[in-house]
Amino acid sequence: MPKVKRRAYRATTRKRRSKLTLSSAFQLSVVVVASLAIGVSIISLLISMLTPRLASRLTGSAGPYNVAGQPTISADFINAVLDHYHSPASGKGQALYDKGVKYGIDPAYALAFFMQESQMGTQGVAAITHSLGNIRATDGYPSYHGYRKYNTWEDGFEDWYKLISQQYVQNWGLTTVDQIIPVYAPNSDNNNEQQYISSVEYMVDRWRSGDVAIS
Prior knowledge:
Layout: H1 22-49, H2 52-59, H3 75-84, H4 93-103, H5 107-118, H6 126-129, E1 143-144, E2 147-148, H7 153-171, H8 177-184, H9 193-208
Antiparallel strand pairs: 1-2
């Protein structure tokens, strides 16, 4: 007789599905909520540990020291600062403010560069050149001792804002202090880039908080 293969049947046993009770559903929801809360706390902790500059780079934002933007200090405040430091540009706060608005640059940064470059025009050649930022002499500009020279402080303010707005921000895409300084005042030109960056950011922070005098 030919061998007949027996059909093999897979033994199956039907398991009872456990019913989800109201109590177990509540416990599950508690676990989920707790897990989410822990996750959010960890993320918040990590973000708080990042410096503002590093955080801005990771998120792709411009960062807290973006020179482009609306004024964060008033014309009256600028005048108070200029007066406090006995600047030869005293009384020109409204002009410094208005030029910043015109070119879309926060005047707090212009004031900080002015302070860093010449102590508000009280040191170096700035009192003669009327130059806010000690811009190097180039063709087409009157010059004095290697720096651009202007007839008035207003002209000097405008040229600085124009340089930062059109050359640095628009043409080169440099918008933050730590991007601008290495080009504006490089180490190779007998500057200390990191010190310059820290000084500008410190002054802007102090003035934004309402302090006229900075140490």
